[in-house]
Fold each of these.
Amino acid sequence: MYKPRGKRIFDLIVAVTGLIVLSPLFVVISIVLLFQHRGKPFFCQPRPGLNCQIFTLFKFRTFNVPDSSSHFSQPQEISVIGKFLRKTSLDEIPQLWNVVRGEMSIVGPRPLLVEYLALYNARQNLRHNVLPGLTGLAQINGRNLLNWEEKFEFDILYAQNQSLRMDIKILLHTFRIVIGAGGTSIPLKKFKGLQSILL
């Protein structure tokens, strides 16, 4: 396992590079969402991070903003551009700022909702022994096709075996999934099995 300082350096290099390279896209999406969602292009929500400490997660807004002039409660609906952003994972770009701030890592368990904390057992809570990430083992091994227990097992496996080599492999597989498969997930067997990720 590599030291947190090494992971921090890796995270900063990738996050800052990502923000610079993606800055034109970031600006364009922000402007489009600014008009699409009544001046609210970003979605901010509290999430549990390392050791269950709560931080504010940033994403591009994908749900339509309810009309404040209406006296009736309106169900939130995903916008057309929101569907595109989610499919391509572009809605996650603002989380690079969470990485720069040290609240997230490039690779780690995805930060879930705060209200889920009360549902975790002792083993599942091990996922909070490391920083949450933009991508992780669960994301390259089925993502939403996995059930709750399977996702947590991958999160725990990462928390217990994290290394620089593993982070690099997971990041490269993530790029291949997003670029080559339009944001869909590819089972790990496509990459010669889980053992190749852990070694």
Amino acid sequence: MQGSANFARLKDWAKENDCWIEDPKSLGVFSDRGSENEVYMCYDGIHVYKLNDFRYSDDNLTPFFERIPAHNQYFPDCAYDFIGFSQNRDGKVCAVLRQQLVVNAREATPEEIKAELERIGFHAEDNGEYFTNGIHDIFDAVPNNVMVGDDGNYYFIDTIIFKSDTDGLDTYKKFSPNYRKSKE
């Protein structure tokens, strides 16, 4: 996937259009690595930067860029700001997203996640593997990706969203290390 000419062209395009971040360490301090994001704690102490390696997009980046406004629509308290592009520690071209840091939070329970998603119009499918409202499907809504702030609000900080009926479930199953682990 990342070896394709498309990603080399994306990097060239980003440099030509002044939206390439040469050194991710200029954003903050490396903090963690998830299945698709490398996370940097911003020097301002109120944001995180995520270098998303397009794992759930194959060579077609359209679903990735559709995910950002969908996420922001459903979860405005932890919206993503698209900043530009960079290269992660593995040398993969990534989108750089900024998100407000959720402080004093705990992981939500699966029951809390289900109840909150139902409250905003989603219902569980495939034994709770994902949630849908018929417009979008939400995957990876698990405790380490959904936080409860000390304000009582739910923060869906790292879920995966696809338009319904676009083979999102198959894509998720194909690329998700969490899905593969749960089936072994």
Amino acid sequence: MDYSQTILQISLLIDAGLVVLIWMVQLIIYPSFTYYKIENLIKWHQKYTTGIAVIVIPLMLSQLIIAVIDVFLNFSWLSAATLSLVLFLWVFTFLNFAPLHLKITTGEVTRELLLRLIRLNWIRTFFWSLLFIFHIMIYISF
């Protein structure tokens, strides 16, 4: 097994974790926010963000680190595309989701905000799924 295949296998594991997580968030967690009374959502949201961060931060950091390492040690259009997609997901997450979650934390919750959270998350769901499928296709071609 060469370096490229090892990196790809690690990427697949990380991608799989993020895909399962993002689909759970999209289909279960974010929609459930619309069923809470605002005061209960604010209380729950603090626990949710703390708990989900323990899972999301290591996965996203690992994905970024692997993508950067792969670009530097094995530059190709595939590694550049992967890094570009990972960087897009980071920027998109921090520019869009951090402010929305901050509004929930500070009590600025509206139904429109929660629906925006769900709508925007489809973009992350699509791109994390795409990245996973992309890596599966590359792995199968090895």
Amino acid sequence: MMTKAYPLGPWFAHLAGPERCLAVEVDAAFWESGVQALPPGRLVSMFESAADWQVWECHPEGEELIIQIEGELVLVLDRDGAEERVRLKAGEFAIVPKGVWHTADVPVAGRAIYITPGEGTQSRER
């Protein structure tokens, strides 16, 4: 198989165990059924945030690593009904604990890389 460059955003990298990486195209079919068809592992994605998130999310299968590469993000974690806020500036990262509901405010538009245990991810309106 030939090595190829993929644009992070429309494509995710899927870390499927210690020996395998998959390039995954992110389209409507991916969100409908493709994410469930992936082997166990972690999704590597990049998203741009220009406004506060409109949802809360939770990853019951493991911790999420968020690496801020541009701008600023304020993670808001729901710790048993109390909010914990963590400001991320470019070049900083945070680890969201397994099973903790979280959202984000965006004081400065930017981009972040997310390494997420995608299986079982839940979301609810903010």
